[in-house]
Request: fold
Amino acid sequence: MDTRYRIMLSESEIPYAWYNIIPDMPSPPPPPLHPATKEPVSPEALLPLFPRALIEQEVSSEHYIEIPAPVRDVYRLWRPTPLFRAVRLEQALGTPARIYYKYEGVSPPGSHKPNTAVAQAYFNKAEGVRMLTTETGAGQWGSALAMATNFFGLECKVYMVKVSYEQKPYRRSLMQVWGAKVVPSPSNETQAGRNVLARDPDSPGSLGIAISEAIEVAAHNEDVKYSLGSVLNHVLLHQTVIGEECLQQMKLAGDYPDVVIGCVGGGSNFAGISFPFIREALKRKLGTRFVAVEPTACPSLTKGVYAYDFGDEACTTPLLKMHTLGHSFVPPGIHAGGLRYHGMAVLISALVKAGIIEPVAYHQNPVFEAGVLFARTEGIVPAPESAHAIKAAIDEALRAKANHEEKCILFNLSGHGHFDMAAYDSYFAGKLQDYEYPAEEVQKALASLPVV
Ligand SMILES: Cc1ncc(COP(=O)(O)O)c(C=O)c1O
Reply:
């Protein structure tokens, strides 16, 4: 039989439920703690920031949560997303490995982010919210939320990390096309922003700072809530449509992955592709490996500590048990803006701790080299974030070649890089730096970890 290059599903095969990994975890994830009392935070305490439905999902012990019909209807604009067999990449590498990738860049904003943005906009609208605030790094999340709020008739304000705001003017325009207001962060609009600017007027910003600004605005306005594009349990939950579709597609391909790979910023696209496969691995005692790929410049899983820390720079969030570089860590302005977060999702961190997920880190030059090889063989220009997963998949395939192994490799291609061409320009001009792990900076930031 001819190898299938593109494995497609029909609209009717979009999953009807999201998969919640919490009840299947080896032990329950550590709860969020109140920073003053160090006691678990009651779900009620989160109501100023999130609608009730999302808080219920955050703490749910149900295995599956039904996808509401209006959310599924929006998903139909681009889901199911294709699964590709990377035949031309395999040939270029001369590997006996079979490489597959699930392509989330076919969504209108160009990444996996709308899988949760649409759900969050829907549940907020259903509870009478007027406006959502959020942060964005690379601009992928901000544009996803801008599109989703536009569909459901909500206003949207996006605090965009300043270095990305300057590097990616067209991401900002895209958010404006969908009706969002975009503010470079740190800004003078919030106390959190003003505090940072007073210390460092040239701050490049960070996701931690932008989160503080967005939270501050939501906390002070009753009809405004906050929306996060990664890290939280309900965000990871919404992304599991990726892995659920992919399980069906691997079956159609008559194959099954030995290794599942994704890049990690806060952990949502990796959770999306991997959690349904982790469920299968635990249930059927499979030896599948799960590899989470991060940048060497922001190595929360490979160099951070597993500890309770704040999710934001201004210490306004509950404490989360996660791999962290310290909430005051400001990573260098690398081009994979979506991977510049000091912490990692609680669920991913716990699964790393349990030995189920393996982390690896790469420098940005080899990542771009992998991205360019991918574009020249498979055609798609990957987002710099996604190129981290490609690099790891290529390394797996080359190891398989060296060991004469017919391994099956699956990775998530979380987005396209059409708005990231300035990053590719810098790469071609030899201007990208491979940042070494700034040990002193991290030591300084870790010294500010709260005592629990
Ligand atoms: C294309 C792309 N991939 C990956 C990420 C990282 O986020 P996460 O780890 O939540 O998937 C981002 C974040 O902005 C992104 O834009």
In short: The CA atoms of residues 297 and 332 lie 7 Å apart. The mean pLDDT is 95.
